[in-house]
Amino acid sequence: MNTIFEHLHTEEILKRLDNLSENSRPLWGKMDVAQMLAHCSAFQEIPMGYSTPPRGWLGLIVGGFAKPIFYNDKPLPHNMSTIPSILIADKKDFEIEREKLKQQITAFQKNGPEACSNHPHPFFGKLSPEQWGRGIYKHLDHHLKQFGV
Fold it and tell me: pTM of this prediction?
């Protein structure tokens, strides 16, 4: 399974981000490309410890059972619900959002698993650094495929 902590996998994600343009259109979902980038940046802030969204009641009940969805080898389903605090609906600047996300990914990979926050995922709960690394790669891969790259 790919992980954002592997330099090769990080480089692949960064190259795919470079293949996006502000004219990229989604194959599914409602976000435009700049909103998707902002969403991925907001998500990235959770394992980095910059954001600590609370656990939702549904996550408390079923999140632990569903946790493998986040880091297993199966693709994430299209139009899967997201954490309310990282749902992006306002207009964003494509170039600013792409650069911000690239910097976050690079910093997270460079800092390594030991710098992962202990704060639980708002739905899935407590994750190991290895699970975060796989899940972050999988989340980014999901959204890049959403925009055809």
Answer: 0.95
